[in-house]
Backbone:
């Protein structure tokens, strides 16, 4: 059994890691830390775990050595104690934004302050297996992924990979998100009476996850617009782009199917009948799938490419466990088999 | 008192007309027709009207002459009996799509079949006061408006009116809508268990309301992408466009404020603090307001312009009553004073 | 014009008062106070009020004399400065729980601490017109009502008034409530991701509003059980009781209709067809109606009596304005005419 | 491998069976039938199953012999072809209401028509392992369970089993349910715009599931009141009863813990802190747990006992698979390990 611990176990990302790792056949959880909930049973915070574990939250200063350490703290913390944490485990997977960007200058540009551990940036691999499976498999340090970045990256991946996109035309990604993106702390707008029933465009430009799309796909003229809708889990990215002249439906089918064939968690959804004809996050709650689909206006070359994910799974903890599987040489889908629910 | 009747009173648009006209100080409702609910009290279908009216649904073949006739039937019906209906009232306001487009060719292109009464198309005025107040004021025949078209038209109106938009760049309008858009009949995807929690992009291209935006704003390179979200009433249109070189924030403020100042139901929403900083449909339920706002990426000239409305009010019945007020020389806001609710 | 001010204008009850009083034809709002939002426009907190008022929140220590003062502060505050506040206005309507109970001992029993101004308790009239219309009409000091108490009181009123209830059998009231009951501050369980989709029985026994039902209806063996559900506005009280031997359906119809006939905001809802056959809060958002209905098991005498209201309207601010109308000799329904929406 | 087929695979119960059996390590699905969706891929109806199976819906008249046959048809069908179906499999689990009651007279009383195969009633065992584990383990024919009956039965089981309940006092069970209870066909009230935001008491008395509670628990003076709320999956039963004189909190703790200890899918939820202090269905979506809890008014002996389940899992398909495991001598929890999600 591989031993693992989770730093920051009381947030939503930490809770999802606990759920996944408790069901993982090759892993034993040693500790989950939380300052706020120190000494409480983890099931008092994550009530779904009741009758599955008697683990209590422990003090982050009492961490013991393990094989794999997951960091699930709020952004901006891991970079301050990465030196110390790296002494506790040979392999670290950090779900926060601290080590996603390779360039300290980019970090400062998008996060508004200098990075506290810039020399560590080059030691981390960006943790999206659909983009960097080989590197992750041999890495010791893997970053997490931004949920909105992941939906955007996977919506655009087939087009970029097959070279079908017209890069001179700006790419506009419209992203709709559920409330769990705001985390277990939330903000004044997260109060149910204010957050229910919303269609709230909270960021027209400049969302930090944009940096991950630029870095990973090499697209430079791209913007992400973020709109909150009434849902707890889920992201849908709808990317508007232009395909190169001559690109036809069959080229697109080929490109999308290729990505789905190479990646166990990617599915193409493009149906002519039934209720579920396009990617939708609602059926993905708890699953690690990324559903992708597209539609093309053949007259103008305008393509609408969609990707739906569960922001806490494929957009965070699910992908982190998928990375762990690769890093440990386990089957990539181990512990991530949950199919998802319908209806829900 | 002006006498009015409603043809097709059992649908959502008809119900909203009943609600508004029952509260209108200068109007007396004579009849509301419904084949399906013939003989039932209108409050049995629209339960909010209980204790306000003892009106029963009457037979559409038994319509009596009135001053103003509202047509709120499903699309495709009014054009088949407009000759007969026009004998019953000097003024007709048709909420359906039948008389929104001026060109029979456009109608056939977007609706997939020839128009049954093409000579009537030129007799109707497009019923959005923010675009055609003067013509409506002297018109006898006024069309309804598409709810998505209205949100799009009003999102873009300040830019078009002030000549700030770069028309050579495609305009992409991302529209998020509530379930009441599907009408009281719905479809298989409207079942609560399938429709709850959705983020469902049901039309990437080619939505029929696009024709109304092209016709009214003169923009030709424009697309509407429609996504259903979990909400009953409400539309948010988020338009992505490019402003002309040199256009700055102050030009935009001026353009948006001008439209708000000229139109009693338009408000600019662009706050630096609080929860409600941008246009949001949730607080507009039941109100006739259209809230508009914008954000500009000064580096690229990419503008995100938003408009939120209640699809059944400003997007349908509210605007229809506003047109009636203009046609009758009444105060434009009469009977449309409901402020909207917070929280909701 | 009657001048009014609102102490505590930034909460949900205060916001609803502002909405109603802005639309009231005989009232002029002088001030609305808020410490937290001092100096802000009221529409920045209550975005529905935009374009309706330029009022800003003022300092509670700067209150000026008016005809009617509404107190909409959190519970426990008004009792500490009622002496001072009563110097500012001849008529006071307090929405909080401070002056609902007539007995200081009862207050201490249910609220867990002694009342700070016990001599004032007898000066206030319980502000539910359906129970105390005559007293309210001549009162200078009127208390607010608990929303859950109001739904319970009105569900049981027809039975109590007609003497149909078997008082030796315990009355069990199951109450389902929306999230706006928790107020604009909320609590940790109010976060959207935790509060969405809930069916959460947060109080099995001992809810404070029970005291108001005992006091007003004279029922002693009664319990209220509170369950939160996914809705913003609305309360449904479902009361289980036993009718006296021999009570038949026709007696019940008579009793319920009598209450509806005597009260402009009470409606009986009991239909054999359609979707809306029983009282439901969703269509009451923003309206001041209380919809009541019932069902009887004739074999056992078990009656299920229901009452649906909007907690912020009939359960708080709407009833407060109704009381003001009575206190000022105005038409009881003035400014409270909003019909409610369908669908919503 | 055990071979299984599902008759009626396109409904919600059938879809959930497919999901569970696809993930079951000891089972191979041979056929799933559907007349409406004949020839379609099962993932076109149940989109969560995409990339997990290439199974297509087959013709119910083309069923082949298997080890276990699941019947998931609408109520009233299995009783008409049970003779024929029993020729196809040695073991049958029928999810419908057809074989839940042991008495043909009871069936006629509650379902309003005579049973078509009364001699089969005694061959079936009521399929709730928490009540009849031993009989199920040796049975060939097992009925399904009503979801509302299951929540009621498990809420009351600790009290009945320990003999703590005062049977002379009527038991009132208030049940709140999600929309998936109405099935994939729904009804006019199931349309999202009508069903969203509801608190709708659709059955005050006489719900058919009452018969299952009377039969299984032996309580005769019991009523179920059903209220629809805005949720897709989930049931909460809140039972109001009276405990025998002298029963104290410690007796109740003992009784509830005993039931939880004897049953792998039962958990006691009764916390003093945190957000999740009582049983709640939202965290149970997809899980087979039944969470039970209670509160006692020691002064009156009034007990409120709660049970939360996922109606499609513990209330239908999950319990059916649990029965299959028992009938086949497999581990009772096999294939039912999904933990449930938080937040959701």
Residues:
């Amino acid at each position: 059994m591989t031993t693992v611990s989770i730093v920051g176990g009381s947030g939503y990302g930490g809770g999802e890691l606990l759920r996944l790792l408790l069901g993982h056949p090759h892993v034993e959880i040693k500790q989950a830390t939380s300052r706020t909930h120190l000494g409480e049973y983890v099931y008092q915070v994550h009530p779904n775990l009741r009758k599955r574990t008697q683990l209590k939250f422990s003090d982050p200063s009492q961490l013991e050595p393990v094989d794999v350490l997951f960091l699930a703290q709020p952004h901006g913390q891991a970079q301050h104690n990465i030196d110390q944490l790296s002494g506790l485990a040979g392999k670290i997977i950090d779900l926060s934004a601290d080590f996603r960007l390779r360039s300290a200058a980019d970090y400062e540009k998008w996060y508004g302050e200098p990075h506290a551990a810039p020399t560590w940036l080059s030691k981390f691999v960006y943790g999206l297996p659909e983009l960097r499976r080989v590197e992750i498999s041999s890495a010791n340090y893997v970053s997490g992924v931004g949920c909105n970045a992941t939906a955007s990256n996977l919506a655009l991946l087939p087009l970029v990979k097959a070279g079908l996109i017209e890069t001179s035309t700006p790419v506009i990604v419209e992203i709709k998100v559920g409330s769990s993106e705001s985390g277990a702390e939330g903000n004044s707008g997260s109060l149910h009476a204010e957050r229910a029933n919303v269609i709230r465009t909270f960021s027209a430009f400049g969302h930090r996850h944009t940096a991950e799309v630029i870095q990973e796909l090499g697209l430079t003229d791209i913007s992400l617009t973020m709109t909150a809708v009434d849902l707890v889990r889920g992201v849908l990215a709808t990317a508007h782009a232009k395909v190169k002249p001559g690109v036809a439906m069959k080229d697109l089918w080929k490109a999308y199917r290729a990505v789905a064939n190479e990646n166990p968690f990617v599915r193409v959804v493009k149906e002519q009948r039934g209720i579920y004809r396009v990617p939708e996050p609602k059926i993905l709650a708890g699953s690690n799938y990324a559903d992708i689909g597209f539609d093309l206006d053949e007259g103008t070359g305008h393509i609408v490419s969609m990707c739906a994910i569960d922001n806490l799974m494929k957009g965070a903890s699910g992908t982190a466990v998928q990375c762990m599987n690769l890093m440990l040489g386990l089957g990539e889908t181990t512990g991530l088999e949950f199919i998802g629910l319908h209806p829900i």
Q: What stands out?
A: Residues 59 and 240 of chain B are 46 Å apart (CA to CA). The domain at 147-309 of chain B is CATH 3.30.360.10 (Dihydrodipicolinate Reductase; domain 2).
